[in-house]
Design brief:
heterodimer, A: 357 residues, alpha/beta, Rossmann fold, Hypothetical Protein Tm841, Chain: A,domain 3, 6-stranded mixed sheet, 29% helix, 27% strand, globular, B: 210 residues, two-stranded antiparallel sheet
Chain lengths: 357, 210
């Protein structure tokens, strides 16, 4: 293992110290428990948006804290969910009286820890809402698995809902928008190499020089299949079609009900893409793949979208939700209406995303 | 009767067992999960040991609740909130108790497991810790109904938990990270069912030794 680290156990802490030093104008870092907040938190009267998860996906989530996006991010150890005390303390720190919305990626650890935190925050009189992001089309069914994982749509949801909160949406409106974004976004990822978790010291999985993993998760979870290495066009086409040809997806999610003070289950079905849709297209590097290769994938994606009658209204290309130094990429398509596009275009000032201001 | 000291000794014994089985649990987790269950459980119970002296003279409900909060904030992953909820709920059910009768001990385990189910939404044969807890509670209930004493009822529960743990081996996981492996999750014993068996067995050991 060759990495720019001092001590394995200090990786997360030192990263946070570096962020605090680099971006005092945008964010503040709290240690023990670890969380990152906007520099001007709490913003009175505004819904506070909180996300979090294991570290190793930078710039997500800490790099998306700032005006127009997240109010707080809770980083766990590398690829390990944060604990509820982090989200609970972060919620208390950023609640401006309008409540907090948790955006939770669908991993069992993240879900259980965020649910516990939501109960603690509610018990303290904070209005909470919790929306699950589960957009990984690589996972076929939800009946016999923990369901689709939360991947690329998370970045888009944080941007869009963050802008809506900034514009004065209340908690239920923010939750409805987050749910809508999640239901209209789908992703697929591939890996050319594994990655190495510092604490493990060795690659998470083995992948031959002449093969790639199709449908990889952002922690190296196994994908749909392992295939012989192919060209950018072949891989790009297979990825694009895995999203565009994917059927409806149904599962049951759990959301918090502030009136009864309990969880309620909702069955949600995501519609498939169809000709005539306009989308935000997000081509993301897993960390080790250069931007030049992302453009090769985007070139093919744009061609296939055109053939399918899908209009790319906006795009985002670069490393935003990574998997340490893994070589590979993901594509996320988000069907976008005027509401979604308006908030996508709204100003954002964070270390990881910045435009319009 | 189970005394407050015995509950404290159970938690201490659990910490020792988790330390001893740190590598074993992590290996089980490496096969179908993310190879950190033993590390996480050991870290969590080490923290419980640090916290325990400050509440060891409090009532049993308080001790269990403190254990739950400590596990929740130190274990991480899925097992942190699950075991944390187990102890928080059992602590709430036994608020202000200084000692436990047979019924209380069963109630402690039952309400704790109800908390696990509520949090994790696991069903029988999903290949989770519930596959150890569920038969254990059934066996204990049956033994108590038959008029057996605490020790014998707990012994029946531990035997059933061990069998339940072993029964997870041929199952396909339907919860947690292991579920993405589908067929490939077959043939491996569930790490959570294993740590649950170890925890219950530590309770029996503690009561037998005192």
């Amino acid at each position: 293992m060759k990495k720019l680290i001092n001590a394995v156990e200090d990786v997360v802490k030192e990263q946070l110290e570096g962020m605090a030093t680099a971006h005092p104008d945008m964010l503040k870092v709290h240690f023990e428990p670890n969380y990152v907040t906007r520099a001007d938190a709490p913003v009175q009267g505004k819904v506070a948006l909180i996300s979090g998860g294991g570290s190793g996906h930078e710039p997500m989530h800490g790099g998306f804290v700032g005006k127009g996006m997240l109010d707080a991010a809770c980083p766990g150890e590398v690829f390990t969910s944060p604990t509820p005390d982090q989200m609970y303390e972060a919620a208390k720190a950023v609640d401006g009286g309008a409540g907090v919305l948790f955006l939770v990626k669908n991993y069992t650890g993240d879900v259980l820890n965020f649910e516990t935190a939501a109960e603690l925050a509610y018990g303290d009189g904070i209005k909470v809402q919790s929306i699950l992001i589960d957009d990984d089309a690589a996972v076929k069914d939800s009946l016999y698995t923990a369901g689709r994982r939360g991947v690329g749509t998370t970045v888009l949801a944080e941007k869009i809902v963050g802008a809506a909160a900034e514009a004065g949406y209340d908690l239920e409106q923010c939750a409805d928008l987050a749910r809508k974004v999640n239901q209209n976004g789908r992703s697929i990822g591939i890996a050319l190499t594994s990655c190495t978790v510092p604490a493990a010291g060795k690659p998470t999985f083995d992948l031959g020089e002449d093969e790639y993993e199709f449908g990889i998760g952002i922690h190296g979870e196994p994908g749909r299949e392992r295939l012989p290495m192919a060209s950018a066009d072949e891989i790009g086409e297979k990825m694009a079609l895995a999203i565009l040809d994917d059927g409806p997806y149904t599962r049951t999610v759990r959301e918090w009900d502030n009136e009864s003070g309990d969880w309620v289950e909702k069955e949600l079905t995501d519609p498939p893409f169809k000709s005539g849709d306009q989308v935000i297209a997000f081509v993301n590097s897993m960390g080790g793949t250069p931007v030049s290769e992302l453009y090769a994938i985007y070139r093919k994606l744009a061609e296939i979208c055109e053939n399918k009658g899908v209009t790319i209204a906006r795009n985002l290309i670069g490393p935003y939700i990574t998997s340490l130094e893994m070589q590979g990429c993901s594509i996320t398509l988000l069907k976008a209406d005027d509401e979604i596009l308006k908030f996508w275009d709204a100003p954002v000032v964070t270390p990881g995303l910045r435009w319009g201001a | 009767m189970v005394t407050r000291d015995q509950i404290v000794h159970w938690l201490e014994a659990t910490a020792v067992v988790m330390k001893e089985n740190k590598e074993y649990l992590t290996q089980l987790d490496a096969a179908i999960g993310d190879a950190d269950h033993g590390i996480n459980m050991d870290r969590g119970f080490k923290k419980v040991m640090e916290k325990l002296p400050s509440v060891a003279d409090k009532d049993i409900g308080n001790i269990l609740k403190t254990t739950g909060m400590t596990l929740i904030s130190s274990v991480g992953g899925a097992s942190g909130p699950l075991y944390g909820t187990f102890f928080m709920r059992s602590g709430m059910a036994l608020a202000s108790k200084e000692e436990l009768n047979d019924e209380d001990l069963f109630k402690m385990l039952k309400t704790g497991v109800e908390g696990i189910v509520q949090r994790g939404r696991a069903q029988l044969e999903d290949k989770t810790m519930f596959d150890a807890w569920s038969p254990a509670l059934d066996a204990m209930q049956a033994a108590l109904d038959n008029g057996q004493n605490t020790h014998d009822a707990l012994k029946a529960a531990v035997d059933a938990a061990e069998q339940g743990m072993k029964n997870t081996i041929p199952l396909i996981a339907r919860k947690g990270r292991a579920s993405y492996l589908g067929e490939r999750s077959r043939g491996h014993q569930d790490p959570g069912a294993t740590s649950s068996y170890l925890m219950l067995n530590a309770l029996l050991d503690t009561l037998e030794n005192e």
